[in-house]
Amino acid sequence: MKLYREASSRKEKRFKHLKKLLMKEEVLRAAWENLNRDTNSAGVDSLTIRQVEESGVEEFLQTVREELKTKQYRADNIRRVDIPKEDGSQRHLGIMTVKDRLVQGAMKLVLEPIFEADFENCSFGFRPSKSTKLASLEVYKWMETGLNQVVKGDIKNCFDNIPHDKLMDCLKVRIEDKYVLSIIESWLKTGVVEADSVSHPKKGVPQGGIISPLLVNIFLDQFDKNWKRDVFEAHAGEPGERLVRYADDCVPRKRTHATVSVA
Fold first, then answer.
1. pLDDT attached to residue 251
2. Measured distance CA(20)–CA(243) in Å, rounded
3. Which intervals hold domain Reverse transcriptase (predicted)?
4. Is the dihedral of CA 6, 10, 15, 17 positive or negative?
5. Is 93 a domain residue?
6. What is the pLDDT of residue 257?
């Protein structure tokens, strides 16, 4: 809440000393508690959450904390698996090591309140106190006001196509801590292991990464702000349009005498 209030009251502020927060014991502990206990999947090191619990969580957390403190932390390669989709295509899912999932969870706890202060109200995906249900209710709310033209849009392969350099530029608007930025960049560029080969992506954020949805929201917030400026505010005196976005899915609405749905 302190980070959120600071970011809300000082819109031009760039945060410098986030490394200290990232390595705090209570932050790492909270990130550990937030990890999904229902999965026994393992990254390239074959270590599972259950194995960490059996060998000693406190020792594991202290080891990771020491790596962060001494700047020895390095992102491991990501093990990629393909998940079949209903349309017959494949969704690429990255399985990270427990250590990387822990640090990503801690990073999310530190960065999320800062960028939440900037996000537009039309964004509903992967945010605290937001949900698919609230996004649907928002659509129906605008329908009741007479905005009955609907355009349903989807950003094709959004997670796989976000440019690294532009995403880093978005992060630097609020983050000045070079070490924190270097860790995030290492997650974007780390090797992806599939079969017997290792590739290094030139763009995209790893699907399956704990911090990936937040990074997508940070990047797509530009879309929300440009739409607000060029469409909503530019036609403030007219009946207007409204935007409802859930991650890479969006629904612009406009008042008209017809109902149109475009998938």
1. 81
2. 38
3. 64-263
4. negative
5. yes
6. 40
